What does this fold into?
Amino acid sequence: MRVSVLLTAVVCAALAARGEDAVRRAAAPATTDGRIATYEKLSRSKPEDAHYKNLLAGAYIQKMRETTDFGYVDRASRIVTQVLAVEPENYEARRLRSEIELERHHFAEVAELSRQMIAAAPDDAWNWGTLGDALMELGRYDGAAEAYQKMVTLRPNQSSYNRASYHRWVMGDARGAIAIMQQAIASGSPASENTAWCLVDLGNLYFKTGRLVEAEKAYRSALTTFNGYYPAYAGLGRVQAAQGKFNEAIESYQRAQSVVPMPEYAAALADLDERTGNKGEARRQLELIDVVDKMARAGNEKTNRNLALVFADQDRNLGRALELARAELDVRGDVYTYDALAWALYKNGRVEEAERAAASARAFGTPEPAFYHHAGLIAAAMNKKAEAAKYLERALALNPRFDLRQAEIAENILRSLHAR
It folds into this structure.
């Protein structure tokens, strides 16, 4: 899943108070780069008008979403800070500030900012959305449900539907999550990247529940919607790996990696290269993961649950994996963080602590195969054979090829449990 679940372009959200028609006129350039160029020009020509500055900040945030270059968030932040220094109550800028802090994972702060915005404008759906997003990341799911329901009631569109889908998924309702995400896609968005992201997320839901054909179709639709969309290439790589099309999977992951060198892409490529006999390339991918970690350390990055999972999967840098997962829990308390913590604890031999964290990850029945795989291995390590078999069977029932390496491990452990 995406780190931030926001989907509607901020430029459109920030303009809602000026009316839908005004939004469409202002967002006339078809591409994000076009909007940035337009708003930079307008900001220079009318420096006294905060409205154009806010538009530019929103376009920068959208550009970050498309590239994962967080330098654009920093640019947006500087603009919003300048606007609020002159106009502390500027509504558009305050909205953008919530978005910026979400991207920075300051979830408790976003929850407070959103509540302040709701007090000022209770009928603005966007503020309910950011509140729900923050609460989801903090693991406060009842409050998130109330916020999202309010958002859907006020504005049933792609932005609210995709949030409702995510909440349904976490609460264990795969069928409902898929149906609502289909609604989100059908609703459309002024920004094609937003719809592409929804298609990728739909593909992820299909993949995790073993519907590979539907998953592949969703990922390919995302690429048609937003050309070169790297998460869609990564999704295709997962499907192709599950189908045994290893060379095609390598090509897809390489395309994703050429845009954004995420550690999980390098990890997938390392497994695929190892499987196809390219050990030198597999080592290079592992080295790339270590470079990413070194850069994170240099940048004083203390949290990264994705990297923690990668290291735990690979049985290396396990102390670092636990360090990252524990630090993540200080920032967010959702089921995904508890799962990463459980896996890191298990790989560090702390199985009783791992069992407790895994129970928190499974608290709502979220249909994530990895959650049950991790719980199964933890239970097996504690000699709880019946529980271990139950969890591993659940993981493989969701998708028997949920991961190139881990699914095989699950099968082997389950086979050994049944043989005893």
Notes: The CA atoms of residues 160 and 173 lie 17 Å apart.
